[in-house]
Write the structure tokens for this entry.
Amino acid sequence: MSVQVIDPMASGYRAAPAPPRPSALRQCWVLALRLVRPSLRNGEVLTALLAPSVFTIGFFVPLNRVMSGVGHGSGSYAQFLMPMIVMQAVAFCATAAAFRSASDTRDGLDTRFATMPMPLIAPLVARTAAVLYRTAIALAAAVVCGLVIGFRFHGSWWQTVAFVLFALSLGVLLGAIGDLVGGLSGSPEAATQALILPQLILGMVSTGFVPADRFPSWMRAFAHHQPVSRFVAVMRALAGDVPGAGTPVTWGTVGPGLAWTVAGLVVFGGACVLLAVRRQR
């Protein structure tokens, strides 16, 4: 008994073409939507909107009269405090970034993504886009709260644009720190708690609430030069003030804060990329 072998090529059969591979940009977009869409239901957007209001009430109401009496170097305490409200609102978004990164690690999503045909850093880019989305919401809410208490942009249009871009870059930086902490810990609870203490210490011992000369002499140097104070100094200078008050936009004023930001993006952003690549191996 003979067996007839049919040649598919000779019989006119053709192999089905491989499906087209989605572009890297589309993959990042889909992964980002995975994080953005639930934020409308799980309270992340509501928290980003309400947090600046809580910070404004908690800081401005008890400190306004006291600081207006002792002096703060600005046209009003609202003008002095507003950058710190932005800083706190942006830093709050880093906690959500840490929670999301730790959740993905705990649930094994990073391992699953490693087996899929996508760029190594696509999940990281998607999480960064989600951080930028939450930061933009928190920044808009913080500006509205500042306008309510009397804050105004007195600088030129490019200074206002630079203020917004710098605040967004801080969101990316702090989000990278949160993403790194969450990815290393793998525990959402531990990751969020690990970020609270540094935010509390650097926030309280900074020039965001009071000038450096109001601190004890042994603490003034740290309060003046630490990163949060330098970030606030950049936004305070870019926001401007009434004539005769505030600080001018000079390299001595904005340079240290920009240097801290660039260095942080390089160090922590690079560490996030290395962690993402290591997960793929």
About this structure: Residues 173 and 265 are 5 Å apart (CA to CA).
